Amino acid sequence: MSITQSDVAYTAVATAENGRDGRVATNDGQLDVVVNPPKELGGSGAGTNPEQLFAAGYSACFQGALSVAARNENVDVTGSTVTAEVGIGKNDEGFGIIVKITASIPTVDAAVAKDLVEKAHQICPYSKATRGNISVELNVA
């Protein structure tokens, strides 16, 4: 399900210079980082890389979705964390990414945590955007 331009509540704007070996900054000045490929991809590893930025955004978004799912179920997830691991590698079309999401929810038992993570995966905009495009593995710590 897509949204229309009139449904947009917020738009983030970032500009990259020199691709994976340069700089990326947001138009509001909140983010301005040097980007370099990781050593594993032949880069210097001196800056951050797009996979780290994607992992940061996905983990934050998923944590928000987890909170929504928990509120909907009247479950307390205080102290929970979400870790996103983003891998990049060669595939038939050049390169692709995979994601592993691990949620730690110390206030609930494993079955409830698993249910909340599955529900969060249905709510999270990053999960919706990647569904059917990349492999996303869900885990509970």
TrEMBL record:
Entry superkingdom: Bacteria
An individual GO BP term: response to oxidative stress
The species this protein was found in: Streptomyces lavendulae subsp. lavendulae
A Pfam family this chain is assigned to: OsmC
InterPro entries reported for this sequence: KH_dom-like_a/b, OHR, OsmC/Ohr_fam, OsmC/Ohrsf
UniProt name for this protein: Organic hydroperoxide resistance protein OhrB
Gene3D superfamilies: 2.20.25.10, 3.30.300.20
Family the UniProt entry places it in: Belongs to the OsmC/Ohr family.
